[in-house]
């Protein structure tokens, strides 16, 4: 039976698929794979370049409600952010990790009272080792938060940092975002994640 | 020279690519084609199922500003809506044509003071001849409005109504939305439209 499933993907440039010459990003790839499994999935991509968790708090509620209220047979929200929070401006992170955690708790908590919620962790940043170390630490922090909130969290930092496909794809891209082959590697991690598969099984 | 072009596509389920098993829709296809021409295009898909022009007035400004303010080298907005306005509920259109025109003037006018704006007309509705006749009439009305506002308008109703690819694709879909092959036919019309090509040429 094909369900009318609608999912909002809320996050940053990696959610938006910035740099992907195929225009699919990881969100488009996992959506097409769900169709291949017989699930009629409408994916609303709410990734915005440069967005931090603070930016998401300003827009997520209105944007998600405009898409999921009274919609379809089944809905869900997938969140993914963190790299931009860890960017230094004037030697300070755009959002300090304790505030990111507070923002994440608010975003996840709001969504989880209404819909199934999954979180995908931030990917590695290859052009700045200090930035990347902050992202790795934030990913662990977000993973602990999701565990405490009993929400599924997919850590992608370590597997992508060790992935030749991701590293080569970022090299062909702008140094931060991969090309389509890198998004395919990230989509593969999501595709192999049991909570995602349970959500998107016909 | 590859530009960092960011475009918001604002509209309904046809903009969202509902029913496309490839997850590209026409927006994804014309985005990938722009990359093929050397244009680094970030497409923000703001299509929402069931949205009328009245719904768009409630959300367009906030959603577009969150994506285009201080973003990239170049930005633009593409609008496309109308089919849902013409849907009858209790024997009345969800939005009467004179109100759709008023909404369209407001939406186009707000965007056009800030960015280049293009409008793509509504596609045909194959499962309801009376609904489809209202859409055809609204498309002509929106075309006249855009002409008066000196904004490019692409009528797609007649070419898609006469397109075997579109009709067959809708037959394989849910009776209103096509599958991927239909979105490819619509993307082909946009790809061949000089105002779109001028906007997305490296």
From TrEMBL, chains A, B:
GO molecular function: phosphatidylcholine lysophospholipase activity
N-terminal signal peptide: none
Entry superkingdom: Bacteria
Source organism: Roseicella frigidaeris
Name of this protein: Lipase
SUPFAM superfamilies the record matches: SGNH hydrolase (SSF52266)
Domain SGNH hydrolase-type esterase: 9-185
Pfam families: Lipase_GDSL_2
